[in-house]
Amino acid sequence: MFRAALKSLLGRKVRLLMSTFAIVIGVAFVVGTLVFSDTLSRSFTALMASTVGDVVVRPENTDAAAEPTTRTVDAALVDELEGIDGAARVDGNVTGFGVYVVGKDGKLIGGNGPPSIGGNWTDAPAGHDLAGMEIIGGRAPEKKGEILLDSSTAGEGGYVIGQDVNLVTATDQGTLTAELVGIVGFPEGGSLNGATFTGFDTRSAQDLFLKGKDAYTDIWVTAEPGTSQEDLAASVADALPDGVEAVTGDEAADEAATVIQEAVGFLTTFLLIFAGISLVVGAFLIVNTFSILVAQRSRELALLRALGASKKQVTRSVLLEALVLGLLGSTIGLGLGVLLAIGIRSLFAQFGLDLAGQPLIMAPRTIIAAYAVGVVVTMSAAWFPARRTTRIAPVQAMRDDIAMPESSLRRRLLVGVVMILAGGAALAAGLAESVPKPLYFVGGGILAILLGVASASPVISHPLLAAASWLYARLFGSVGALAGQNSLRNPRRTTATSSALMIGLSLACTMAIVGDSAKASVDQTIEENFVGDYVVSSLVGQSFSTQVGRQMADLPGVDSVWAQRFFAAGFDGEAVSAASRSTLRDGLGVDLVEGDLAGLVDGTVLLDETYAAEEGLSVGDRATVELADGEQQLEVVGIFAENPIVFGSIVTTPTTLVRAGSPDADNFLIVDTDDRPGMQDALDAVVEDSPIVTVKDQQGFAAEQREPIDQMVLMIFALLGLALLIAVLGIVNTLALSIIERTREVGLLRAIGLSRPQLRRMVTLESVVISVLGAVLGVVLGIGFGIALMYSLREEGLEVISVPSGQLAVFLAVSVVIGVLAALLPARRAARLDVLRAIGSE
Questions:
Q1: CA–CA gap between residue 433 and residue 180 (Å, rounded)
Q2: Which is higher by pLDDT, 42 or 149?
Q3: Ranges for the MacB-like periplasmic core domain (predicted)?
Q4: CA 683 to CA 694: how far, in whole Å?
């Protein structure tokens, strides 16, 4: 039986090729995601380890996940700590974010994602004497007006040593120009993962980031040989004043790396979701392929039973073929996954996350996952066709026509209805957020509904297939009637093939509705709440110099400039916004439902009414607020109504943020003018030398807010494209196998006068039925999923539900094109069959 199974498999290599491809795509997506995420995680872990000293001295309550802080330690500590036992050297560091390099072409380098870092340059070694950045060309900056750049930034900007570099900062100095005197890099391999670094001499860095204060943002203490980080940290801690702490370099690196791991974990989950979608769609293709192959081998399997093979042996022979197919697909998918990881790495490099200097990480769990996923999915998909082989009686080998026993459509309908109801309940629970981890319930509910519809589709799609058969007969005569009858002859096969396309299109339609509704909600919110005449903000979402607002306020025709800034404590912290009382009242139109705006002074806060209700806070209470110097208890002096122009649920004064250690910089300006001609040009002139800052009117601001939504939807469409590709292959595979199964029938049709063009048309019409059926079911389900998801997000400000009818119509039209294209090869094969040989085939 083992030899028979292998010979059977080798005899049908072409038939199984496209099924193998489905597994290859799914496994490759899993492998590519795991390799990329492991590479990303390892690179950040190595980077964090090489950017800390043996012991780091810093202000207490420093949060690695928070935005950069202006909190400092006294420079005198450097001399005091040099006498500590076990300390080889002590170096002070000044570090800040928001130093943007402008290339020779005038374009901003980096800034979108990874930070743009600036600071003083020291040659202090990293912890454990690890290799960090070193000067690989030129020298260190020695005075004001001299800088060094990392090699990647210098190369991208087109700068060489000796040339002047244009810089934009978020400090009071705004823009500046400095001579490039040195290039730094990682001689032993590594990179800043897309971040940029600009190095200054210590005095210039203190002037730029600390307003001339003789202090450091942190201090590195390097251990002498034989002294552990823990022992050195304990000795250093004994010599520190209140408000300053000492942590080992390992602790500081782990703390920073953990924050990155959270972001990497989200990205990994996001990509693995699409890998799962590809595998589910691929499973439909595999089930269909094995069902057809088992049906075609009915006589062969019956003969094996007649020759003494048991039911279990026949089933095992089919499963053995699936095992070989799964192993082959997993092996190819493993190799393709590495190429996919390289592609993902290149894609994210376009968004600023450059991992080109990092080797790909192929962890043992990735290899195990590749074979586990490929083999399990293939074996599971082949299990149902394999079970049906046990119902073939040995005596059937003597018959001319053998039909595989079919399961009851009534049972499939019942199973499908149960899954649809269960999926609907899970989806409703997830959308209502009445369960822990609602996204799992939403995803599980959508999957259950899709599988339920796929199970019940032979029954629920019968009216559509019958209507298509009637329409074909009217439009294409006898050829159309044959195509329609072929679709109705085996509804299980037709709907199983269309279900793969249905899943991909339903998710695409869902995302189309979510994206269109989100953009419509943004437009409505801006139209209803846009104040002033112009909005000034950063292209990269970071802060910018307060000089911009001051210069704009001095322009003729500018009536007022309202400034807002905010602080975000890590990935999951509550954002804290800050603005003056006049800005809140006149510029942002804040409406207090409790309290008095006059009470907003330094050290107090206003709360959004929704947030206040969730936290059970009212006027007079003290709210726990996470700021740059840690948690603070601030008095609540007012509750304000929902306002989409106010960023964050907590509002305080700008001085409160600055005193806590936030940079003295703005994030958002609203400019009110007298509408005189040329106002836009005058405002643009203020930020001409600062490519990170843009000036927009209402239409421009709305377009800017829609852009990231479009990018996200396009990226999701691209990922769903793999699932749709597998679905198209499923149609091609089903038609090709169907032609082989119906070889005698095709020969008879040709013998009684059906021409080759008519035969090709018949196969094409069958393909169009399959694709249109999948598209109709997918669009209907996608509309339902999209509306449900948007309805659940109405409390998040996405109040408009917009169904892009034009885009959905395009999906339906494309499905017809898919059907025509998928039929090209099977139709050509059918038309080339020799008539006499076809009639004589078994």
A1: 55
A2: 149
A3: 17-238, 495-684
A4: 9
3-class secondary-structure state, position 463: helix
Q: Compute CA 305 distance to the chain's CA centroid, rounded to the nearest angstrom.
A: 51
Range from 162-171, 445-454, 458-467, 817-826 carrying the lowest mean pLDDT: 817-826
Q: If you average pLDDT over each of 272-286, 300-314, 639-653, 725-739, which comes out highest?
A: 639-653
C-beta of residue 221 within 8 angstroms of C-beta of residue 90: yes
The number of residues making up the chain comes to 842
Q: What is the dihedral of CA 659, 662, 668, 671, to 10 degrees?
A: 30
Distance of CA 830 to the CA centre of its chain: 43
Amino acid at 663: P
Q: Is residue 308 packed enough to be buried (19+ CB in 10 Å), middle (13-18) or exposed (0-12)?
A: exposed
Nearby residues of 204 by Cβ (< 8 Å), 6 or more positions away: 120, 141, 143, 144, 145, 146
In degrees and rounded to multiples of 5, residue 561 shows phi and psi of -130, 120
> What single-letter DSSP state applies at residue 587?
I
DSSP 388-401: HGGG--GGGGGSS-
Total-model pTM = 0.74
In three-state form (DSSP H/G/I as H, E/B as E, the rest C), the secondary structure along 676-726 is CCCHHHHHHHHCCCCCCEEEECHHHHHHHHHHHHHHHHHHHHHHHHHHHHH
Which of 644, 675, 692, 641 is closest to 532 using CA atoms?
A: 675
Return d(Cα 503, Cα 22) in angstroms, integer.
15
Axis-axis angle for helices 311-349, 2-10 (nearest 10): 50
Containing 769, the helix (H) or strand (E) segment is helix 756-792
Nearest of 797, 778, 267, 799 to residue 512 by alpha carbon: 778
pLDDT 10s digits, 653-711:
999 998 888 888 888 899 998 888 888 899 989 888 778 888 988 888 888 878 878 87
**CB burial string 746-773: b at 16+ within 10 A, e below:** bbebbeeebeeebbbbbbbbbbbbbbbb
Residue with tokens 């997506």: 29
Contact present, 100 and 167 (Cβ < 8 Å):
yes
Confidence at 390, pLDDT banded by 50, 70, 90: low
Residue 184 bridge partners (DSSP): 135, 150
Query: Residue 48, SS3?
Result: helix
∠ CA 636-641-645, rounded to 5° = 100
The overall longest dimension of the chain from CA atoms, in Å, is 104
To the nearest 10 degrees (0 to 180), the angle between helices 364-388 and 311-349 is 140
The DSSP code for 54 is: S
Question: Given a cut of 90, is residue 639 above it in pLDDT?
Answer: yes
Q: Cα(299)–Cα(396) distance, rounded to whole angstroms?
A: 7
- Listed in sequence order, the residues at least 6 apart from 436 whose beta carbon sits closer than 8 Å to its beta carbon are none
Tokens read off for 700: 């421009």
DSSP designation for 123:
-
Distance CA 402, CA 391 (A): 12
In 68-122, alpha helices (H): 76-81
Do residues 175 and 152 lie in contact, with contact meaning Cβ atoms separated by under 8 Å? no
Q: Which amino acid is at 155?
A: G
Distance CA 180, CA 162 (A): 5
